[in-house]
Amino acid sequence: MADDPAKAESLQQFLAITGTTDVQAATHMLEGNAWDVGAAVNFFFSTGETGVGHGTSAGSTNANATQLRNSPVEVMEDDDHELQMALAASNTSNRAMPMMEDRFPQLRAQELAQKRAHEAQFVPDGFADSRATGIPENLRRFMDTDDDFGAPKYNPPSPSTMEARRVREEQDRAYEESLEMDRAKEMSKKEAQLAAQEAEKIAKQEAMRLAEEKEIRKNELNKEVSRKQALIPAEPKAGEEGVTTIGVRLQDGSRLPNRKFRSTDKIEVLYNWVETTLLQRQLEAGDVSPTKLFDLVSMAPVRAFKDRNMTLAEAELASQTLLSVQFRAS
């Protein structure tokens, strides 16, 4: 082979493009491909670069291959080294196979770009940008102009896609509005419940207050009845002289039971008797409202007895007299 310049040149081309350092293995691969550098390079890369060593043993190569598959960042570093070697070979070689020299770097660049597109998802943020600065300018221009490597072109969405998006947005908006209405209803319901609970609480408190006031008023009226009953003398005994029988008619037409009084008793005694009787009826009915002021009035002649210090004799009340109760205007 040393005597064959063409084969020596092919070997250098293969070593430069693939980046391998195993001359013997490279020679075998070239011989297996009839010294066709392009076919040998394609075979080299299609076999995962396991056909030729990089100055290491087969076991080390397999171990490194496993490590490279598990470490995308190291794969990219190794690929960059191979890319630089390929570019150096394409820029410095001025011997045979000029068309192959132009084509191999492009093939290699395409392959590396495809690998990087797959590995980009594993590369940490900021790492890819820092590595991109190491790409030679001529390769960068090639990748920018080539459709396989250039920036993605903007393709506007189709009308059907736009319509589907519009429908979905309307559905989402309607769903959000429905949720908002449900939330508003739920809030109103809770507010109504809270208002009802507060009203019930206030009503209970008011009822308790009224019940307490009523009980207090009832006790006061009972004390008033007891106090005024104590001021009413007992009825005269049978056969006792100077006795007057008094009857009282109420405004509703009902009458109080007749009662006997002494002619020496004062008109105040009649008022105490009528008032205590009315209060007892009021308490029995559960009414604790304030007692209304009234006057005792005789029918014939019509006369109101307002001087309570007069005795029955001084008021000239007959032995049997009917009086009526007339409540004063409030």
From TrEMBL:
Residues 187-231 form a coiled coil. GO terms for molecular function: ubiquitin binding. PROSITE patterns: UBX. Pfam families: UBA_4 (PF14555), UBX (PF00789). The keyword Cell cycle does not apply. Residues 239-325 form the UBX domain. Keywords: Coiled coil. Residues 143-166 are annotated as: Disordered. It comes from the Eukaryota. InterPro entries: UBA-like_sf, Ubiquitin-like_domsf, UBX_dom, UBX_domain-protein. This is UBX domain-containing protein. It comes from Guillardia theta (strain CCMP2712) (Cryptophyte).
